[in-house]
Specification:
alpha/beta, 2-enoyl-CoA Hydratase, Chain A, domain 1, 3 domains, six-stranded parallel sheet, 49% helix, rod-shaped
Length: 453
């Protein structure tokens, strides 16, 4: 009996040790200052910013940090990038505190998903959350007519259903207001921080990080592999800077920047082609165009929008050789505007789009004015009579030095030329050049009303 009792005590002790070893919720030892890693996102959710967040979570886990603080201010972003962030957060072994800040910040669209997915969701005063409905009016291809409208409606409905189910699963996992989360997608509702707290969309409102940590202290959170009790008061903050590569890609991952780079590239190359030898516009234009193509590799785009850009360039070039009285030029401008507005209209993949009035219209207007001036100058040079080479001799008048029957010598432009006459011409008569055949002029008797040479 004593042996059995001793064995039971040993097993009970081992069970207690195992349980305590698997329970990561014990407070930090006395005198040990907890560390909180910090990632700040201010801008769109794109592959660069998503990679920064995912790597930040991984670094916090490897360093054994108490938590990761994700300070968020975003208007939205790419669905694929948002999915990467959500997946990393739901599988994180370290608590992720999402804090919509500073005042005036917005957790819009993709930011709504990320905020709801946080182990602790907090907002600063004067912030808002919501409007997660997929935006954009064009499906891939941008077809017109009833068929195109039906395809656009189907694409939007498909995107809406997917995102509604996605945010519902996240809200259920985090025990947040599922009904409001679905409405944020389907009805594009948005609310301020106080209403979000009242509706159970977020956990708390905090003026700053210190208040956030104080209100989060002691919370029991479910993380991958178990539960943890949060101890973040007086924590030491370690901010993770974005790598230079991600900063570069983050700057490019903007539809406005991509459009401006493409238009700048067209501007530079067009200037170089119409004025060969300048070098700088061509080099700068090529660099801008390459960067624009890199941006298109980051952002989902429509080939139809890019095709309209090419059609617009073709119309501008054709205006030089076709007398359209500006019609082709106007079509080119319209193609640039339509192509720019359609380039990123893919609602099932992204809610990013070009700022039509503040970016696209001014940029296309400036480019069109410049190209219009170039077309006017080049067109006028085409219509101007040739003033160099043998071509300038056509139509010029001179005097027959010898009789032309049919060949002889004429004096023209201060020079003596061998000439062949279409009809006999007496010496001293005025002649007019009709063609140049090498060093031989073909002439005819000048009309009496023609001006003298």
């Amino acid at each position: 009996m004593k042996r059995l009792a001793l064995t039971g005590l040993v097993l009970l002790g081992l069970r207690t040790l195992v349980a305590s070893g698997a329970e990561p919720e014990a407070p930090a030892p006395a005198g040990v200052v907890p560390t909180v890693y910090v990632v700040v996102i201010s801008g769109s959710i794109n592959p660069a910013s998503a990679d920064h967040i995912v790597k930040g979570i991984a670094r916090a886990e490897q360093a054994g940090a108490e938590a990761l603080l994700l300070q968020l201010d975003t208007p939205g972003g790419l669905v694929e990038s948002t999915k990467d962030v959500i997946q990393a957060m739901l599988n994180a072994r370290v608590p992720v505190l999402v804090y919509v800040a500073p005042q005036g910040a917005w957790a819009g669209s993709a930011g709504t998903f990320i905020t709801i997915a946080g182990h602790v969701a907090a907002m600063a005063p004067g912030t808002s959350i919501g409007a997660a409905h997929p935006v954009g009016i064009g499906a891939p291809g941008g077809q017109g007519g009833e068929e195109g409208k039906g395809q656009r409606d189907f694409a939007l409905e498909k995107a809406e259903n997917f995102l509604a189910a996605f945010i519902e699963s996240i809200a259920r996992e985090r025990n947040r207001n599922v009904e409001w989360a679905v409405k944020a997608v389907r009805e594009s509702v948005a609310i301020a921080q106080d209403e979000a707290l009242e509706l159970g969309v977020i956990d708390l409102v905090a003026r700053d990080r210190e208040e956030l940590f104080a209100k989060s202290e002691g919370r029991k959170l479910k993380v991958a592999g178990g539960e943890r009790v949060l101890h973040v008061v007086n924590a030491r903050l370690h901010e993770i800077p974005m790598s230079w590569a991600n900063r570069f890609l983050d700057a490019l991952a903007s539809p406005d920047v991509a459009i401006l780079l493409i238009l700048a590239g067209i501007f530079g190359l067009y200037t170089e082609f119409t004025n060969p030898g300048l070098v700088f516009p061509g080099v700068a234009g090529a660099i801008c165009l390459v960067l624009g193509m890199v941006a298109l590799q980051i952002l989902p785009f429509s080939w139809y929008g890019l095709l309209l850009f090419l059609v617009g360039i073709g119309c501008f070039v054709a205006e030089l050789f076709v007398t359209s009285y500006g019609a082709l030029f106007a079509v080119g401008v319209v193609c640039f505007l339509l192509g720019g507005s359609m380039l990123f209209e893919m609602p099932e993949l992204s809610d990013l789009r070009v700022s039509f009035w503040s970016v696209l219209v001014p940029a296309v207007t400036g480019l069109s004015l410049f190209m219009g001036l170039v077309l006017f100058a080049v067109g006028r040079s085409f219509r101007r009579p040739q003033i160099a080479g043998t071509g300038e001799l056509l139509g010029m008048q001179g005097k027959a030095i010898t009789a032309l029957a049919p060949e002889g010598t004429v004096f023209l432009r201060g020079e003596y030329w061998n000439a062949h006459a279409e009809e006999p011409v007496a010496a001293g008569e005025r002649v007019e050049v009709t063609a140049v055949d090498g060093l031989l002029l073909r002439v005819r008797r000048a009309r009496p009303a023609s001006p003298g040479a």
